[in-house]
């Protein structure tokens, strides 16, 4: 099959058109590296999804807490950070399918007692949420963050 100059130009035009319409060609907002820690009643919250939900038209950012309750946020690529602006911070912990981890989340801050692990394990097994619903709703969450060039880039949120 011969590749004529007309076909080559057509192919090149399609390639430029596709590249121009792809999501990657849109101007990206500058992002700032952000990290933090989430605690539940004073203890690290393991396996929670943390989301910075924007007040404006900037993109959202998301991350997941590790075994220490710590997280880094991603907007475009892993760990790149958060765009400038004001955000409602959402923290969600839903059924992970592993009820064995529930007692880890439910230890009290002083490490001496448990926060009704039996009820928490039942909630997880039924697909329930372990945290109050207000932390998953941008209109109700008491947690907020402002990101900018001179703002705080490390946050601690205590979920109660």
Descriptive overview:
The protein has three helices and ten strands. By secondary structure, the chain is an alpha+beta fold. It has a domain at 28-93 and 131-159: Immunoglobulin-like (Sandwich), CATH 2.60.40.10. Strands 2, 3, 6 and 10 form a four-stranded mixed beta sheet that branches. Strands 5-4-8-9 form a four-stranded antiparallel beta sheet, with no helix packed on it. It is globular, with a radius of gyration of 22 Å. It starts with a helix and ends with a strand. The relative contact order is 0.21. Mean pLDDT is 74; it is low at 3-22 and 99-127.
**How is the CATH topology of the domain at 28-93 and 131-159 named?**
Immunoglobulin-like
Rg, rounded, reads 22 Å
Q: Approximately how much helix is present in the residues?
A: 10-25%
Total beta-strand segments: 10
**SS-based structural class?**
alpha+beta
H-E string:
HEEEEEEEEHHEE
In whole angstroms, how far apart are the ends?
Answer: 69 Å
Shape summary:
globular
Number of helices: 3
Largest sheet: 4 strands, mixed
Provide the CATH superfamily of the domain at 28-93 and 131-159: Immunoglobulins
The assigned CATH architecture of the domain at 28-93 and 131-159 is Sandwich
Mean pLDDT: 74
Return the CATH class of the domain at 28-93 and 131-159. Mainly Beta
| Strand residues, percent | 25-35%
Low-confidence stretches: 3-22, 99-127
């Amino acid at each position: 099959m011969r590749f004529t100059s007309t076909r080559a130009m057509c192919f090149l035009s399609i390639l430029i058109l596709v590249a121009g319409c792809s999501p990657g060609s849109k101007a990206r907002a500058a992002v700032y590296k952000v990290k933090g820690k989430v605690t539940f009643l004073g203890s690290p919250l393991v396996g929670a999804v943390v989301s910075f939900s924007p007040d404006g038209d900037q993109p959202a950012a998301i991350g997941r807490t590790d075994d220490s309750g710590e997280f880094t946020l991603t907007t475009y690529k892993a760990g790149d950070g958060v765009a400038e602006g004001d955000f409602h911070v959402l923290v969600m912990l839903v059924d992970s399918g592993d009820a064995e981890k529930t007692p880890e989340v439910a230890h009290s801050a002083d490490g001496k007692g448990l926060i009704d692990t039996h009820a928490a394990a039942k909630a997880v097994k039924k697909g329930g949420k372990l945290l109050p619903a207000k932390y998953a709703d941008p209109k109700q969450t008491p947690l907020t963050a402002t990101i900018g060039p001179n703002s705080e880039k490390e946050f601690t949120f205590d979920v109660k």
